[in-house]
Amino acid sequence: MIDWALCSLISAAFFGYDGLATLGIFALEQMILVGTLGYSVGHRVFKLQVQRLEGRPAGFGPAIVRTALICLVIPAVIFDEDQRGLHDRAVGTVLVRTSN
User: Fold this and answer.
1) Does residue 5 sit within a domain?
2) Calpha distance 66→86 (Å, rounded)
3) 42 is in which domain, residue-wise?
4) What is the DSSP string of the chain?
5) Where does the chain cross the membrane (predicted)?
6) Is the pTM of this model over 0.85?
7) CB count, 10 Å around CB of 44?
8) Average of pLDDT values for 90-96?
9) Alpha-carbon gap, residue 40 to 23, rounded angstroms
10) Is residue 8 assigned to a domain?
């Protein structure tokens, strides 16, 4: 919700709150931040990080595929027994709580 709200503000300021622009800004934010840092603004607020199952940072490839699936919405709202969304299962990532 935090990430979407921030992207909505940017969309409203520069694109007249166009829905497609908001989705595009959200996708860019997710791909860039999760791909480089392992977390988005919303993740950072709640001390969460996207990692590979081996504990390594997600990286750009998984971040791009993960973001595309999140933008489809359905994979993000269907969870498995470990509470991992289909978007995380598809790319072998998990959302973990960090200590920082």
Assistant:
1) no
2) 9
3) 23-97
4) -HHHHHHHHHHHHHHSS-HHHHHHHHHHHHHHHHHHTS--HHHHHTTEEEEETTSSB--HHHHHHHHHHHHTSHHHH-B-TTS-BHHHHHHTEEEEE---
5) 20-39
6) yes
7) 17
8) 95
9) 15
10) no
Residue carrying the six token digits 């709150």: 17
- Number of domains composing the chain: 1
> pLDDT digit string (tens) for 12-54?
999 999 999 999 999 999 999 999 999 999 999 999 999 999 9
Furthest-apart CA atoms within the chain: distance in Å: 42
- End-to-end Cα separation, the chain, in angstroms: 21
- β-partners of residue 94 are 51
80 assigned to some structural domain? yes
**Cα separation, 29 vs 76, whole angstroms:** 17
CA-CA distances (angstroms) from residue 97 to 24, 42, 46, 55?
27, 13, 8, 12
Say if 1 falls within a structural domain.
Answer: no
Tokens of 73: 């919405």
